[in-house]
Write a structure and sequence with these properties.
Layout lengths: L2 E7 L19 E6 L8 H9 L5 E4 L2 H4 L3 H13 L3 E4 L4 E3 L6 H34 L12 H9 L4 H8 L3 H13 L1
Helix pairs in contact: 5-7, 6-7
Length: 186
C-alpha cells in the first residue's frame, strides 16, 4: 500500500512545487504533467495508471488538477477505484475508496468537477474574445511558423513521402499537406 502523488500544471512555464507540499506525506512515486486538464491524454496520467496497484492511494492537490472535464474526472476516479486504488483530493478533503461508496463525496466530485469545466470554458471564451479584438486591431498575427513551407516542399520534391517528411520534421502529416499547399502557392 503506497502513497502516490499526481501533480499537474497547465503549461511548461509553471511548476508543481506548491501542490501537496504541505501534505506531510512521503510519496513512493510522483507523477506529473505540464499539460491542459481538458482531456485525459497525458503521459504522466498514463504512467500513473500503469504503476498503481490495489491498496495504493493516489493523492491529488485538488479536483481541477486531475481533470477539467467532468466526464474524464469521473472516468479517472472510477477507473482507479475499480482497480482497488483510493483517490484523495487534499484541498476538498474528499477521498474515494474502492470498498466504500460515499454519496456526498460523489455529489461534491460532480459539483466541483462541473465548476472546473465551466471555469475552463470561461477562460477559453475570454481568450478567444481577446484574440478576436487583437486581430481586428492588426496586433495579433498568431504563433510564428516553426516549419518553413519551402522546407516541406523541398523534402517532398526530393522524393520523400508525406509520412517520412512529417517524422523528420516532428509534425503531423496534415501539417505536411497544409504547408506543401502553402509552399506551392507562394
Amino acid at each position: 500500500m503506497a502513497d502516490i502523488a499526481y501533480l499537474r500544471v497547465s503549461s511548461t512555464d509553471q511548476d508543481t512545487d506548491r501542490q501537496l507540499a504541505d501534505s506531510g506525506l512521503e510519496f513512493l512515486r510522483v507523477f506529473s504533467d505540464k499539460a491542459s486538464g481538458k482531456d485525459a491524454s497525458r503521459p504522466g496520467l498514463t504512467d500513473l495508471f500503469k504503476a498503481v496497484r490495489p491498496g495504493d492511494t493516489v493523492h491529488v492537490h485538488s479536483i481541477d488538477r486531475l481533470a477539467r472535464n467532468l466526464r474524464d474526472l469521473c472516468d479517472i476516479v472510477q477507473r482507479l477505484t475499480s482497480d482497488g486504488v483510493s483517490v484523495r483530493f487534499h484541498k476538498e478533503n474528499l477521498t474515494f475508496r474502492p470498498d466504500q461508496e460515499d454519496p456526498f463525496a460523489k455529489m461534491m466530485l460532480h459539483v466541483i468537477g462541473a465548476c472546473a469545466e465551466f471555469e475552463r470554458a470561461m477562460i477559453r471564451g475570454r481568450q478567444a474574445e481577446g484574440i478576436a479584438k487583437a486581430k481586428a486591431k492588426g496586433i495579433y498575427k498568431g504563433r510564428p511558423a516553426s516549419i518553413d513551407a519551402a522546407q516541406v516542399v523541398e523534402l517532398l520534391d526530393s522524393g520523400l513521402g508525406a509520412t517520412e517528411v512529417a517524422q523528420r520534421l516532428g509534425i503531423s502529416r496534415q501539417s505536411v499537406y497544409r504547408l506543401a499547399k502553402q509552399g506551392a502557392t507562394a
